[in-house]
Amino acid sequence: MKRKKTKIKHLIIGLFGLLITAAIVSIAAFYYVFNMPNFNHIEDDTYLYIYENDGFEEVLQALQNKAEIRNVANFVYTAKKLKYNQAIKSGRYKLNNGSSNLALVRQLRSGNQDPLQLRFNNIRTKEQLAASLAKQLMVDSLSIITLLNDKDYAQTLGFTDQTIIGMFIPNTYEIFWNISTANLFKRMKQEYDSFWTDNRKAQAAAIPMTENEVITLASIIQEETNKNDEYPIIAGLYINRLKINMPLQACPTVKYALGDFALRRILNKHLTVESPYNTYQHKGLPPGPIRTPAIVCIDAVLNYAKHDYLFMAADASMNGRHAFAKTGAEHMRNARKYQQVLNANGIK
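Now predict its structure.
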């Protein structure tokens, strides 16, 4: 009887030992499959980009291209166990060295992506804008160009197809990489509306100018100089001309009309180009901006310098500055000095 009890006791102890071993193995297996760090090593700021319509195979390939996965089979098992392969979301996802299979799959399945800092500047044409945006976002440049050229769509936002480029005010915007083209435009309109505070609107009305006219003039003065202190002076000069119905005669508008931004010298033959953007041929502002002007230039128009200047010529010292004049005679003297320097340097 005593032996029988001893055997039962040993059996219970053995079964208990097996249960403990099985539990340890199960926990180890769970850790190995689900919670073990997934990558051998990845650099900081490594991102996984998942495009719209990407399938699980594309995601897996992109992961392997970005980082060395320790055990692909474990990741695949975890993804399928959590049904991620049936719920793939596009986006830009930051990869972390300590991320486990479980954490990574949950991150991707939830669409918990990281926004990026969208920046664009020094943009002169719609094509350049579309290329810059498409380079940073999932959207393609063709879809951007299509909306920029859509007259009816531009009108719904309060623009024409010639002024809508001015809606994109150069700045830094936190935005998700996989934003759609339509939502991108809506976001830029929201940013544009936020930029035009009551104070800025009041300043524009006092000139008087519309928001689009301010941006168009700002685009011209930015092309005229890169000297910040000259922006308000040039803005005031052109406003003086507009007020007396005098042609702007802005050389940058001729370059824009010709599509040749590398021209170093505007000749008489250039001034005859037929275009609504040629302010030598047409009075008033051109129909839209000739670039996306910087905020400093927009504010320079709103805070333009009040003076009597009507003319300007590039300074003969070739320092990038301008010689301003109140009379045509004074201006001609300044212009001749500059032309003599151009001739002496063989600039044609």
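The beta strands are 46-50, 91-95, 116-119, 172-175, 311-314, 322-325.
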